[in-house]
Amino acid sequence: MDSRRSPTINDVARVAQVSTGTVSRVLNGRSGVHPQTRERVLEVVRRLAYTPMQAARELTGHTETVGILLAPEVRRYIPYYLLFFERLAEALWREGMRLEETPTDPVGLPLKAARAYVLMGAHDHDPRLESLAAQGIPFALIGVYPGSFCVAPDDLAGGYAATRHLLELGHREILHLTGQPQHQAGRERLAGYQKALAAYGLPYREDFVLDGDFSTLTAYRRLRRIWEQGLRFSAVFAASDEMAVGALAALEDVGVGVPLEVSVVGYDDLPEIGSALTTVRQDIAEIARTAVRLLKEAMSGAQPYGVRIPVQLVVRGSSSLYQPRALGP
Amino acid sequence: MDSRRSPTINDVARVAQVSTGTVSRVLNGRSGVHPQTRERVLEVVRRLAYTPMQAARELTGHTETVGILLAPEVRRYIPYYLLFFERLAEALWREGMRLEETPTDPVGLPLKAARAYVLMGAHDHDPRLESLAAQGIPFALIGVYPGSFCVAPDDLAGGYAATRHLLELGHREILHLTGQPQHQAGRERLAGYQKALAAYGLPYREDFVLDGDFSTLTAYRRLRRIWEQGLRFSAVFAASDEMAVGALAALEDVGVGVPLEVSVVGYDDLPEIGSALTTVRQDIAEIARTAVRLLKEAMSGAQPYGVRIPVQLVVRGSSSLYQPRALGP
DNA sequence: ACAAATCTCGTAACCGATTACAAAAGCGGG
DNA sequence: CCCGCTTTTGTAATCGGTTACGAGATTTGT
Q1: Are B119 and B141 in contact, with CB atoms under 8 Å apart?
Q2: How many angstroms separate the CA of B172 from the C1' of C14?
Q3: For site-directed labelling of B163, which of A22, A76, A200, B21 has its Cα 20 to 30 A away?
């Protein structure tokens, strides 16, 4: 056998001394195969390291290729989305589907239609959304979009948990670096922040909320400026890890120690941050798996609905108990 | 005909009243088809908006699926690479190949082998590189790697062009924000900067070269600090657009006008920067097309070689003629 | 122990393309 | 008008899977 060629179902059948039909039945978990035979086939599959060729499955209608469409705006928050890509590819792969990178036209619509799509960063009345719906192409969205299959992290709970964490540490002057106002997730994190303050009976101070755009640099500049203008606070909740990185840098540059003087909490738990940042972890793998599940339901013509994925506070070294400030320099 | 089902080659053949073989010959540009027949087939293809199903082509060995492997480090420079993704998918598509998003193991190797791979951000003695070579899987690299098929922009020329542009405008005190030292492209851009200075008979001043890491924030902090320490210059050449954005912000925050007081030149010509930044454009589409061409040669077992893609200076509003500084405040 | 019901498994058609091969059609020369 | 050569076209096998169908083997009931 040509060792360069990867084994086919025929190779498996021949070695296991059964027919290709039986191998296929075993692999697809169909009933009506003798346990002993099943074991023998699986053993050969393992030994030959056989994996079905996706193209052939697709031909018989058993592999769906799924495309992914990114809104132009999301290019700014790419580290997060790239992570998602990989999880999505993995989740699809497990289901016998494949993620296909399709070239898009200027409007952002694919030139060659896949069986279904995952959309990220779509906005209300997105032309791509309407076009897909008009063509009857199933799709699932990452985010919150009433009337469509969609999955999103529970950002309200995340914002609440991050803020409550700081409140429980004794902090009362908590700054919030927001995402862009048109970004749903950012708005929800802000709402969680407000809700936590309210739960602790604290007033909502507008000067403690700094508009950001999820970028590290903007977070740095806004925070540093506000500090140099004399505003004081003991904690910062940033709506993304990248903004938290900006905040950390700004605090460092104005000579404030973290976490001794100011605590910082981020959001996303990006692995490349790598630091000791207290943050809110999104279960991206779970979001991806859910997206795939929704996609399958969309393909089977079910009624659209939305899913929320819980988030989790991860406490690391950037947050600590509130320390009253020394008076004066 | 079920209108939901996309047309197959059989539909085309039936409508055009020829055999599937003839349709296939027409579509693949094979000779031996009567011009009249060819016209008739093409007409039907257009009318039915027929596109061949990739899975079926793949089955007959005519579509190669190509994977892409990203080094963990490149996640930091994602905007650029995402652009590349799309161009690569497009270039492959035109050649009847497809870019497949494959899940990778912890080492970064694909769990399911594609026919060939494009690697980005590989370093010398990259285990993935050696693993692919050992398995005889064809691959092409983006960057410079002697002994492999590789394609890279001509960064030396780019660094030279950017610096010469500033020199021609009369600038003599030109700061350079470098990329990371371990990044080949950054080193070349620096070399181009040095070469241009030498060509104009200027000494190389180490204090004018600021180590960066391609990140916006680092560029901002380094530039602002150096300015506040009293170093003066009339121009900045940043080794990436993102660093240029950081430079622009820093200059703004220290109250320096661009381009009147200081000129800024970036590198990459990222579309989302969108501003009036003078920069060096990399022809990413051409790099992607070349990668595909190299991939095909790699698959046919040719001898490895490297290709350089020319870059182009794009003059916009962030650079202008040198203006002598007013003395004192 | 024998017929019927049930399990297990092999055979072959099929998915949508490509292409080797053969058949048919067109052509010119004698 | 026929022969032989070239051009054009159709036919059928093939790629690697899935699955309907039916055959053979095994179990069950009486």
Answers
A1: yes
A2: 74
A3: A76
Q: Is A3 exposed, middle or buried (0-12, 13-18, 19+ CB in 10 A)?
A: exposed
Question: DSSP per residue over B263-306, as a string?
Answer: EEE-SB--GGG-SS-BEEEE-HHHHHHHHHHHHHHHHTTPPP-E
Contact (CB, 8 A) for B236 and B213: no
CB A310 within 8 A of CB A283: yes
Tens of pLDDT, residues B30-74:
888 898 999 999 999 999 888 888 788 878 776 666 776 766 555
Q: Could you read off the pLDDT of B93-135 as tens digits, one per residue?
A: 666 666 776 656 656 666 556 677 888 777 777 777 888 887 7
DSSP lists the bridge partners of residue A177 as A210, A238
- pLDDT tens column, A242-256: 999 999 999 999 999
Q: What is the DSSP letter of B118?
A: E
Q: What is the pLDDT, as a whole number, of residue A103?
A: 59
d(CA B221, CA B229): 12
Q: Mean of the pLDDT values across residues A71-80?
A: 56
| Alpha-carbon gap: B254 to the closest alpha carbon of chain A (Å) | 12
Q: How many other CB atoms are there within 10 angstroms of residue B135's CB atom?
A: 10
Query: Six-digit token pair at A283?
Result: 């279960």
From CA B7, how far away is CA B13, in angstroms rounded? 10
Q: What is the pLDDT of residues B140-162, one digit of tens each?
A: 888 888 889 999 999 999 999 99
The H or E element spanning position B211 is none
Cα separation of B61 and B46, whole Å? 25
CB count in 10 Å sphere of residue A257: 10
B6–A113 C-beta distance less than 8 A: yes
- Give pLDDT tens digits for B218-265: 999 999 999 999 999 999 999 999 999 999 999 999 999 999 999 999
Length of chain A: 329
User: With an 8 Å Cβ cutoff, are B89 and A78 in contact?
Assistant: no
Look at strands B116-120 and B98-101 and give their pairing.
unpaired
End-to-end CA distance of chain B: 80
Looking across all nucleic acid strands, the nucleotide with the smallest C1' to CA distance from residue B16 is D9
Per the structure block, which two tokens stand in for A168? 């429980």
Reduce the DSSP state of residue B310 to 3 states and report it. coil
Question: Which residue stretches of chain B are H helix?
Answer: 9-16, 20-27, 35-48, 54-59, 78-94, 127-135, 155-168, 184-199, 216-228, 241-253, 284-299
Predicted model pTM: 0.81
Alpha helices (runs of H) in chain A, residue ranges in sequence order: 9-16, 20-27, 35-48, 54-59, 78-94, 127-134, 155-168, 184-199, 216-228, 241-253, 284-299
Give the pLDDT of residue A241. Answer: 92
Nearest nucleotide (C1') to alpha carbon of B30: C19
**Residues A81 and A291 sit within 8 Å (Cβ to Cβ):** no
